[in-house]
Amino acid sequence: MNATSVIDRRRILGAAACAALVPLAATANAGALVGAAAMKEDFLADSRYRDALIRHCDVIVPMNDLKWEAVHPERNRFNFEDADRLLDFAREHGKSTRGHALLWYNAMPSWTREIASTREAERELRRHIEQVAGRYAGKITSWDVVNEVLSHDPAAQGTFRDTLWRRWLGAEQVDLAFRAASQADPKAELVFNDYDFEFRNPRCARRREETLAIVRRLQDRKISIHAVGLQCHIYGEQEIDRDGLARFSESLARLGIGVLVTELDVIDWKMPADIAERDRLAAAKVDELLGALASGGPIRQIISWGITDRYSWIRETFPRPDGRPNRPLPLDENYRPKPMHAAIGRFRKKA
Ligand code: G3I
Fold it and tell me: Ligand 1 pocket check: which of 39, 42, 63, 265 to mutate, most ligand atoms within 8 Å of Cβ?
């Protein structure tokens, strides 16, 4: 092979290598789908809410309509009416949808308190997932398979939260849920969803480590898991662990696991009263969070937990001491975009 052809070959290989990198680089910055969780009551009551979902979302998530208490109110009765209404609306407007959540400890119907053995827990969990994820196979493209299975403080309380699922299934609750979801809808993106990964403290760091360990365990057992959902209910007064999040995102990418922001809002109860200042700081917080995650790997979706300050769980749960209305979401109480909306938009996949 003569000198010229060697140079050409290297150039070609170099070009090929660069070309190979570009898609990866492009993927890293491909941008995220952006969306919101929608609450039935607000969806039905307020046409501006419906319009905002159409105008600002690529993805719509039923906030409560796919929880056990909603879809499985009695042991032998399923009710998909509310979920169907919102999912049909999403589909009619060309939006993709996420399901929340196939296994949780909260929003459980009273009959589940009768579950009193491992066999029964296995049977009911498997049956629930087969019925729910199976019904929406090919329609809901991403599921929170398990939600908040980690204990609040794993170092003090052990890995898994004390729930009926841990009581009867232990760690196997996760394996069973992901197996059942994969069988019910082999094409769906299967997500491990939890909270408090985001802040600079040992508890959040440990929750990130526990999550990586669970992901690796599922992979070792050849159980399909595709992504981790960080809820990202961001306390405005807490420091974002940028390095910790970047490493977490990078570690997940190395395992071939995607990252979703699944319940984004800013808990502003301890932030300045002045609206302009508070909105600016909240947007900066969101930008810091998303920038840290994106520096470790691509963010697949950014879902806010609600879309307008007019309706948010934050008002009841984290009221401001000064009594002023909270401002946790991308649109204000009159559906006007706030700086947070632009901050999220900078990470959004370009149409
Ligand atoms: O629909 C009923 C209504 O018929 C009844 O009149 C009313 C009064 O009891 O309750 C209504 O249901 C409420 C539902 O929200 C819809 O408004 C439930 O009681 C209430 O518990 C439920 O709260 C939801 C909560 O999860 C528990 O499911 C919140 O809206 C929702 O924002 C919150 O979301 C959770 C995520 O699922 C998981 N991550 C944390 C996040 C915030 O807590």
Answer: 63
- Of ligand 1's listed atoms, the one at least distance from the Cα of 100 is 37
pLDDT means per 10 residues, the chain with 351 residues, are 46 42 44 98 98 98 98 98 98 98 98 98 98 98 99 98 98 98 98 98 98 98 98 98 98 98 98 98 98 97 98 97 98 98 96 76
Residues annotated as part of the active site: 148, 263
Max Cα–Cα distance, the chain, nearest Å = 79
67 CA → ligand 1 middle, Å: 10
Q: How far is the centre of ligand 1, averaged over its atoms, from the C-alpha of 41 (Å)?
A: 10
Q: Is the CB of 45 under 6 A from ligand 1?
A: no
> Quick one: residue 112, left, alpha or beta (phi over 0 = left, psi -120 to 50 = alpha)?
alpha
C-beta of residue 347 within 8 angstroms of C-beta of residue 33: no
Pair 161, 178: CB distance under 8 Å: no
Calculate how far, in angstroms, residue 199's C-alpha sits from the geometric centre of ligand 1.
25
Identify residue 247 by its one-letter amino acid code.
R
pTM assigned to the model: 0.92
What's the N-to-C CA distance of the chain in angstroms?
47
